[in-house]
Amino acid sequence: MKAVCVGALLLSCVVPATEMAHAQSSEPIRLAQQQRATNPPREQLREQMNENVVNLMGGQLGAVYIVIAHDISVAVNDGNNMRVLPVVGGAGVQNIRDVVFLRGVDLGVTNILSLNKLKETGELGPNLDQQVAYIAPLFNETMQVVARPEINRVEDLRGKRVAVNSAGSATAEFAPAVFKSLNVEVQTLTLPQGDALEKMQAGEIHATVCTCPIPIPAYSNVKAASGFKLLSIPYTPALERATYYPAAIKASEYPNLIPADGKVETIATSAVLISFNWQRGSIRYNRLARFTDAFFSKFDNLLQPARHPLWKTVNLAATIPGWQRFSAAQEWLDKNSQRAASAKSAKEETAERLFRQFLEWQRTNKQ
């Protein structure tokens, strides 16, 4: 495991030998610079290139996470001065493990649900919130449940077979708990969304669910003649405690699954860009600080038409309760707070206002 000693814990922190080997970049920067200056020109170029490269765990080929990782690599690219290498990886939970354990991995795309679960279980060691920091929240991941024609409410799925996306995905990890919290026990199986829709068509399963960014290509391709529909998921206190928040899916996003001018109420979480919380002054910290400056300073590059539309929903200044932002990122935001605030769209401000109103309504009507 990588190791981080914070504040007063520094004097009492004992780092196993394996962890010391893993933190290969914590050597003093000055000594590394001195050694590099004595190398032949070819080796100096090699050192320069490696000093300014960060590895970002994305997701499976074709999934949104790897697309987002590729977008970041294009947006911040500055030749030998800054490169991001997108890595084909797993899903939310696996990417956190990779950031904590894999040598050479600096960053990862994951989601808040996965962070909170691993923090709660302690399976990656104690104080995960000190080992891992976040650079910025990203886009919404919305729970989308597509059901066969005879299923009209989520309660109708009780006892039925429901696909919960691919094995190892955040959906497979957390969707069963959502159904359980709603007192809807289902029989779950893991399938990619395309395969699940085919089995629904054949009557072998009754629904499929994905907690994913909108739109899901497989859902967009569903024909209206299938009679498939999106189900509403009620926002309950239990789901609020689990760090979900209310969301809605519009008919314009899935015209073949939602009646015209209609919408489906559901729940969502947020994707997040994380890093290992390297000690300030180390080589890896300084490398991530350079990345952070490039990521924030060049964020407008991510809003261009060639990049994924989800970037237009990102609020860099948003915070994640219970987690610390990578200090270089927080310092950048503090210095550029006016710019960060002006980057928020009117749509995002309206969404935040409506969310606050919803929570106030919920508190008032709990009786």
Write the layout of secondary structure elements.
Layout: H1 17-22, H2 29-37, H3 41-51, E1 53-57, H4 64-76, E2 83-87, H5 92-101, E3 107-111, H6 112-121, H7 128-131, E4 132-147, E5 161-163, H8 170-181, E6 187-189, H9 193-201, E7 207-212, H10 217-220, E8 229-230, H11 237-241, E9 245-250, E10 263-276, H12 283-297, H13 327-335, H14 337-342, H15 346-364
Helix pairs in contact: 12-13
Named CATH architecture of the largest domain? 3-Layer(aba) Sandwich
The rough form would be described as: elongated
Distance between the termini: 48 Å
Task: Tell me roughly what share of residues is in helical segments.
Answer: 25-40%
Question: What is the H level of CATH, i.e. the homologous superfamily of the largest domain?
Answer: Periplasmic binding protein-like II
Largest sheet: 10 strands, mixed
Number of domains: 2
Regions with little confidence, pLDDT below 50 for 5+ residues: 3-26
Order of helices and strands: HHHEHEHEHHEEHEHEHEHEEHHHH
User: Can you count the beta strands?
Assistant: 10
SS-based class: alpha/beta
Overview of this structure, please?
Strands 1, 2, 3, 4, 5, 6, 7, 8, 9 and 10 form a 10-stranded mixed β-sheet that branches. The radius of gyration is 22 Å and the shape is elongated. Strand 1 (53-57), helix 4 (64-76) and strand 2 form a beta-alpha-beta unit. It folds into 2 domains: 7-138 and 272-350, 3-Layer(aba) Sandwich (D-Maltodextrin-Binding Protein, domain 2); 141-269, Periplasmic binding protein-like II (D-Maltodextrin-Binding Protein, domain 2, 3-Layer(aba) Sandwich). It has helices spanning 17-22, 29-37, 41-51, 64-76, 92-101, 112-121, 128-131, 170-181, 193-201, 217-220, 237-241, 283-297, 327-335, 337-342, 346-364; strands spanning 53-57, 83-87, 107-111, 132-147, 161-163, 187-189, 207-212, 229-230, 245-250, 263-276. Helix 12 runs parallel beside helix 13. 39% of the residues lie in helices and 18% in strands. The protein is built from 15 helices and 10 strands. It has 367 residues and is of the alpha/beta class.
